[in-house]
Automatic annotation (TrEMBL):
UniProt name for this protein: 23S rRNA (Guanine745-N1)-methyltransferase
Keyword terms: Metal-binding, Methyltransferase, S-adenosyl-L-methionine, Transferase, Zinc
Record: residues binding Zn(2+): 4, 7, 20, 24
Organism field: Ruminococcus albus
GO MF entries: metal ion binding; methyltransferase activity
23S rRNA (guanine(745)-N(1))-methyltransferase N-terminal domain: residues covered: 2-38
Pfam families, A to Z: Methyltransf_31, Zn_ribbon_RlmA
GO biological process, alphabetically ordered: methylation
Ranges where the Methyltransferase domain occurs: 88-203
């Protein structure tokens, strides 16, 4: 599956490294992942979410608040790939691997997760190693420069992550599926009401996917009771609001001991043209 991020030749596993015919070599980390992020476009040491943000997201997701979403995504992906005996799935912008691990429950599926954050990918490996999951591989890489061969995947999953029209089209097989998950209009509205004087609904996303045909869309919503200040703030750190909330708003948030929030998601399924 992997191609060299420098010359785009096929990578082969040789000992404890991935190597291409042109001599480019990428060492496999102790946990089992590989860093394929090119320094020409990114600084592999600082790209993506930092260690504190990844830790907060991991601890929040492991509480199970988004477990219904993970199961719903697996259900939809399984239905879309029904009849494919050995589907290859790329989780693009996989974060710390929560949704990737759920996808691994699909029988005979081969799952590849990539994220631009080395801290996130390290958490992915910890997650699958502790769970004994054998059908997932992870690499540090960008969604806009995927380290995978042309027409090598049956599906690409993007959950709250950047979407790349051309790269997803390139790596998907003919008729391959792209599943994009984004917030519904009132996702976490109660959290915004706690920190903003004038909370607003989320606007629909337009991904300009002109190389894909939209086949269907599912709105999936439920409520969740966050029962501790830590859980509330961990969730807050996962959102874009974390970067644009005033100190006054953060103080109001830190005063909350519990809150019931609407968890709302739009799950769109596209087919490669």
């Amino acid at each position: 599956m992997y191609i060299c991020p420098v010359c785009k030749k096929k990578l082969n596993k040789v000992g404890n490294s991935w190597k291409c015919a042109n001599g480019h070599s990428f060492d496999i980390a102790r946990k089992g992942h590989v860093n394929l992020l090119t320094t020409a476009k990114h600084n592999p040491k600082t790209a993506g979410d930092n260690a504190e943000m990844v830790k907060a997201r991991t601890e929040f997701l492991d509480k199970g608040y988004y477990r219904p979403l993970a199961e719903k995504i697996r259900e939809i992906v399984s239905a879309e790939l029904q009849g494919n005996k050995t589907p290859v799935i790329i989780d693009s912008g996989c974060g710390e691997g929560f949704y990737t691990a759920e996808l691994s429950n699909m029988k005979n599926a081969r799952i590849y997760g990539i994220d631009i954050s080395k801290h996130a990918v390290a958490h992915c490996m910890t997650r699958v190693n502790l769970a004994g999951i054998k059908n997932c591989e992870f690499a540090v890489a960008s969604s806009f420069d995927l380290p995978f061969a042309d027409k090598s995947a049956d599906a690409v999953i993007s959950v709250f992550a950047p979407v790349c029209n051309d790269e997803y089209h390139r790596v998907l097989k003919k008729g391959g599926k792209l599943i994009v998950v984004s917030p519904s209009p009132r996702h976490l509205f109660e959290l915004k009401a706690a920190v903003y004087d004038k909370p607003y609904e989320n606007s629909p996303n337009d991904y300009h996917l002109d190389r894909f045909v939209k086949e269907n869309e599912t709105v999936f919503e439920y409520t969740a009771e966050l029962s501790s200040q830590k859980d509330i703030f961990d969730l807050f750190m996962m959102t874009p609001y974390f970067y644009k909330t005033s100190e006054e708003g953060i103080s109001r948030l830190k005063a909350l001991e519990s809150i019931e929030v609407n968890c709302g998601f739009v799950i769109q399924v596209y087919r490669r043209k």
